[in-house]
Here is the input.
Amino acid sequence: MDFSFSEEQQQLGDTLRRFVARDYTFEKRKGIKDSAGGWSREVWRTLADIGVLAVNVPEEHGGLGYGPVETMLVMNTFGAALLVEPYLSSAVIATTLIGDIGDEKLQAELLPQLAAGDRIAVLAHFEPGSRFETRHVEATARAIGDGYILNGHKAVVLHAGAADALLVSARTSGGADDADGISLFLVPRVTPGMTLREYPTLDGQRAAEVLLREMSLPASARLGDAALVSNSALPAIEQALDIGLAALCAEAIGVMDALIAATVDYLKTRQQFGQPIGRFQALQHRMADMLLYREQARSMSYLAAMRCNSQDLRERRRTLSAAKVTIGQACRFIGQNAVQLHGGMGMSDELNVSHWFKRLAMIELSCGDTDTHLQRFIANR
Here is the structure.
């Protein structure tokens, strides 16, 4: 199988690497992370100018019409740079979801704005008791007159504070664990009845608890064809989350590449007993194991990118769970060993190694942790 990239794909990767080297250094990222909002509108505009916000937007709506492979290349670079802007949440997951379930009018209005960086949207789906189970939705949408009243609690909604609109899932019928009866609503972030409780996560990102209390929405806020939504918006949500999972795996590879390169450089320069510690055979064996984990993870990331939009649901779930297990194990092994090989300074905030380590730890826990996906892989045998 040919894993080489086209000239256009290589140019995309080269453009982003130049942007990161010039405009998104470790010190600049640290300043952005510590700012009041935790992200940069200026950087977001620059990403729009480069065109990467349009990667998953169809050409008829002003986008590039690319797909998961190009998204993988983007996320590789953003992983190494530890981008704190809401690229995965908005430009991948939410954009994919709107393109899948939004009607023609909404797509024509919103997708060009997302591609241009004028608006940001994020998905608010998971809840405190869901434990990564996508069909578990307790939030309710009660039809009243020509609209709906929403009540519920969405947990750990990444970049909710930066969003102009939230895609909120709520149940119009059925029980908490039914696959049918889940609808999706487009909700402006500043809506009476919705409260955001923001907080930083371990890796420097921002998330929020989204509380819905008797929030009133017009009928037009409900996404998709009425017949489709009454059955369930869950397949579209799962498809977008699977594409997001493949992108997250690609981000992990970018973090691993940067972390391994930094560790190799440290082993070449750190002196002990009159020689670089990289000459010690035990440490060479450790680095060799890290490289093996990384290459196994990379191959599974490629497979995830190629299968994440498959219409064969069983194959898609099995492949993505296998990828997440392999990459989750690599995140833990590479992250822990890189810190150990750097010694005490590996956990200092002044060294980017600690930030890469924290991001790998969060990736391992995101979109379903390793144990969760191991169980899903077994269930889809």
Remarks:
- The chain has a mean pLDDT of 94.
